[in-house]
Amino acid sequence: MHKFDEMFAQLTGTGPFQFQSQTMGGQTQSQVQGVRDHYRTYAQWLARQPREMMQSRREEAEVIFRRVGITFAVYGAKDEDGAGTERLIPFDLIPRIIPAAEWRRMEQGLVQRVTALNRFIRDVYHDQEIVKAGIVPESQIVGNAQFRAEMMGVDVPNDIYSHIAGIDIVRAPNAQGEGEYYVLEDNLRVPSGVSYMLEDRKMMMRLFPELFSSYQVAPVMHYPDLLLETLRASAPSTTDDPTVVVLTPGMYNSAYFEHAFLAQQMGVELVEGQDLFVRDGFVYMRTTRGPKRVDVIYRRVDDDFLDPLVFRPTSTLGCAGLLNVYRAGNVALCNAIGTGVADDKSIYPYVPRMIEFYLGEKPILSNVPTHMCREPESLKYVLAHLKDLVVKEVHGAGGYGMLVGPAATQQEIEDFRKQLIATPERYIAQPTLSLSSCPTFVDAGIAPRHIDLRPFVLSGKEVQMVPGGLTRVALKEGSLVVNSSQGGGTKDTWILEV
To answer: Model pTM?
Structure first.
């Protein structure tokens, strides 16, 4: 057997065993287990492929991605000429496969969770019943950096605040040792990554068309149609034929490719702040044929930069007077201003109780157990167990500002301890989960790497999503950080239809 085939047989079960990597106490261990049934057909196919063929396909994918311009900007990174750098997000050829029954339950849990989060955001900016019920402390809302007092009492179409949500999910053993899906994080402001989900699928269909006749893989390429339907459904009642635009900070934003991609796929205009202006209580965009009224703005610009008359006065990324038009109900913003109050990591621990409070249901998807360091007893526990925990900033993103205890040096732990003691309210802590891993094609061959999943949930007249999401993979051996800015890559996600 070819050495490449032998490695794959060990990892995927074409031989008698599968190895699943787990991180425990800072050590990456390999656990032998049988291959899961839904991987068996793929495993047998891949074991027959020469390593040289897989390597050439990987190189072909990289050339195509670079030609199309599927890159992201790395803030703070400079090339040898001192200019900002753009990088490809590495694409892995081995898909992540999820059986139909697992997806159905995950989908039910996602609909439930996003529905409750939208109810929470509306409640925050109206009657705050959840505060009066003693479930979420008022200080966690009004003291939240993402709370926008300007949104108090503002009614939005269909009471939907987060029209596009990206929910980060991991799979790990539960108390019974069985694999279970957990929500790691809610992204309700300007979640990114869906363009990579679509481009990864397109690439797999181009490189390996024969696989899609062997597997009944649910389609995802209709996502732009669902997105446009969701955006149009959010339009104010002042029009029956809404004009939708995508608002981008510009070509130097790390996700600019995605902004341009989605605008093109939906057949709508991509605009910057300088293209918009307010007149007579409405928003207009400048066109070669004169001003055209805008009804729905899919904004990829953070709250603080949307309206210089209200938020950051030096911003040139937004449109002066936008908030007044929005408050009057003459334009829809997707997502709404102030949605970040619900995806802050200090709010995350309350989501299961939100589901029970607003929906009267038990959560389908569990949270990862979380210690809120602002609480004295939790802080005491976290300080005593830093080497075993993952500690995150409540406003952090991109894998920055965090401590992965099992992978940190003693000096890093002690330095972080000082920050934690000085400002405990800025942090939460979670156990280091034994995250599931997936066979991944790396330079040394096929090896297990940790993964997560970001499904994209659309809330319009109904909550819907395509069957799939962005699987991110930590390409560094033993790493738990999947973010592209930290060296992570992506995989195509296959949801089986049967």
So the answer is: 0.88
